[in-house]
Amino acid sequence: MKHRPLFLKIISAVILFGAWEIGGRSGVSFAFPPFSESMVAFWSLIIEGTMFKAYAETLKPLVVGIIISGLLGITLGIWIGLSDKFDWFISPIFIVMQAAPLAALIPLLIMAYGIGLTSKVFVVCIMAMPVIVLNTSAAVKNTPTNIKEMAKAFQGKDIDVIFKIILPASSPIIFAGLRLGVSAGFIGAILAELKITPTGVGDIISYSRSIADYPSMYAAIFSIILLAVLFLNILEKMENFLFKGNNQGYVSE
Amino acid sequence: MSKDNAVTVKNVYKNYGETEALSDMSLDFPRGELTSLLGPSGCGKTTLLKIIAGLLPATSGEVIVNGQIVKEPGPDRAFVFQDFALLPWASVIRNVAFGLELRGVVKSERESIAQKYIGDVGLKGFENSFPHELSGGMRQRVGLARALSVDAQVLLMDEPFSAVDEQTRRKFQEDLLNLVKNENKTFIFVTHSIEEAVYVSDQIALLLPRPSRVSEIIRPTSFKNKDVDSIRRDSEYLDIVDRIWKSLRTYVK
User: Fold this and answer.
1) Could you tell me the CA-to-CA distances from A247 to A5, A181, A228, B136 in Å, in that order?
2) Residue among A122, A131, A123 nearest A175 (CA)
């Protein structure tokens, strides 16, 4: 019973990759190689060291962007959640940001910040931050009033109410926002490399496509998905470690 | 009556915008006794309790607890909530010690105090359980232990038994009578239940709505020293229950 989740996950992966393999072999398109060929290409990219060099580039804007989005996003989200005035002032920016067609705005970013790391970090942040901010502020606003009132009745100061009540109560939704934000950040990092200057994994993707080496292109796409899944799992472990009894829901309703 | 009053409410008004929740409310709460605030919905009993707690400001008038005018929640008052208001992510012992935690008592000390009250309310062995693992009655015992552990002289109870089942409720009422007898504390008890109010109270303040006012103060005498099993058969108990219902029935829709 204990291994059932793992077992189901493996089955799910087998079905997905099996479908990919069949789709690739049945000749849907020349540009859609089967799973096995992509894995061979994946392996040779690793052996050659191309993959590692590529990630050394790609991770820079990704990690910087995600750290900025996480810290700044959660801080702004809490502030928005606590203050209506700040909410009216700041929220529209993030709602616009979330809805904006980013790819179309990239030329503007290049004009403002050049083609270097800054622009790429911006792209990651624009992708990652809105969902983090909006989730955090919604979670803070929806903290049950009864436990806030309880803390006040027992003479809790505002700072206690924020750190001992609001933050732990909001943490499940804040973390959900972080997970969505991180996924979006990964998309942003690749988008930046495809649209600004081809470096890192984005370079493998666009170069392989240009020479019709489709297995390598899919291998690169596969690697980024793999990394994102890995990262999201780590985030989930961290959440469970930080806020144990929290996934039990509220008992007072 | 020359009795010493722990809490005095003097000409308190409370308006929510146009609506008058409390109008010229004056009431004395004798020290060491249990006073019930009884009345139909909308008579402002919970509002009055929250003003005494310092959770709501009065529009005008004053509340005096032990000679001090109430401006905010203080160490002399502890609150028991209708919906328990427990922290779902915290163990029983942390929940019970939470009032002390907010007052800055060090961990070892607050946990040994909490331990004592967990034993007193009959939850020994559940220290490390989480609220979702407890029944409704046990959750309210946690809420009660939390209020007792801060050792306030005045205990404010907002319909504390309304969310627990009838049998547990009877047990709670008996326990409450013993608590009033053994602890030298003043209890202010909000309830909807006429029987409950008559059963547990030294003094019943009958509140009527539109406009909110104290219509009558009833002090049961003959059955106060009887044991818990005989109270419900006492003729004075039955008379008072009848009398209260007669004054309330026109206000109940």
Assistant:
1) 18, 20, 23, 19
2) A131
Looking only at the bridges linking them, the beta strands covering B186-191 and B203-208 are unpaired
Full-model pTM: 0.81
**Residue B92 contacts residue B118 (beta carbons within 8 Å):** yes
Residue with the two structure tokens 């539109």? B210
pLDDT digits (tens, 9 = 90+) for B113-148: 999 999 989 899 999 999 999 988 899 999 999 999
What is the number of CB-based contacts under 8 A between chain A and chain B? 82
Q: Which domains does chain B have, with CATH numbers?
A: 5-76+153-251 (3.40.50.300), 89-151 (no CATH)
B56 touches chain A (CB under 8 A): no
Q: Least CA distance to A146: which residue of chain B? A: B85
What are the residues whose beta carbons fall under 8 Å from the beta carbon of B165, sequence distance 6 or more?
B136, B137
Q: Among partner residues B73, B87, B90, which is closest to A155 by beta-carbon distance?
A: B73
CA–CA distance, A28 with A34 (Å, rounded to integer) = 10
Instruction: Provide the ipTM.
Output: 0.88
CB contact B152 to A (< 8 Å): no
Q: How far is A200 from chain B (nearest CA, A)?
A: 42
Under a CB-based contact definition with an 8 Å cutoff, are residues A132 and A69 in contact?
yes
**Which of A248, A252, A148, A150 is CA-nearest to residue B83?**
A252
CA distance to A69, A137, A156, per residue, from A82 (Å): 19, 8, 16
Bridge-based pairing of strands B19-30 and B5-16 is antiparallel
Bridge partners for A115 per DSSP: none
Q: What is the pLDDT of residues B19-66, one digit of tens each?
A: 888 888 899 999 999 999 998 887 888 889 999 999 999 999 999 998
Contact A246 B89 (CB under 8 A): yes
Report DSSP state, residue B3.
Answer: P
- Please name the amino acid found at residue A81: G
